[in-house]
Amino acid sequence: MWIAAATTAVFHQDVVESVCGFANLQLGFTIALHIKQNVTSDPLQPRLFSTSLAFREQVVSAPAEPGEGKRKGNAAFMKPKKLSEPLADLVGETELPRPHVVKKIWEHIKANGLQDESDKRYIECDAAMQNIFNVERVHMFTMNKLLSQHLSSVDGGEEKSS
């Protein structure tokens, strides 16, 4: 019984891979599901598969849902934060959303070649970054944690640190 189930799973994987050659993965799984529903459960009976061209066209030409495929941003995540003075000096602005602050810091790191060549996870801090992080070398994920000390809400409260 186990061998039959394993061969069926492998077979359906092959069907998905062969169908995906002409379209995207979601289409391949849709057609494979259609095929699987039309297959008998007897593992010894010969399997004859055919997906009609009409079925393929129906799946391909199905209208997309409005807004499907578009990723919506989190409004709370994109709220502007007030930056501390050393951080504002580094990024050149006094208020920015956190993702934009991180992006500007990475632009500074790349422009000045501050990433450690032997281990790219570490950043060698220059004078401007040492004013912010108070260390000579910082791990990229620790950098994001330390950054929260320099961000506060525009209305005056400090950002919560995780």
TrEMBL record:
Signal peptide: none annotated. Pfam families: SWIB. The lineage of its organism: Eukaryota, Fungi, Dikarya, Ascomycota, Pezizomycotina. It comes from the Eukaryota. This is DM2 domain-containing protein. PROSITE patterns: SWIB_MDM2. InterPro entries: SWIB_domain, SWIB_MDM2_dom_sf, SWIB_MDM2_domain. Residues 76-153 form the DM2 domain.
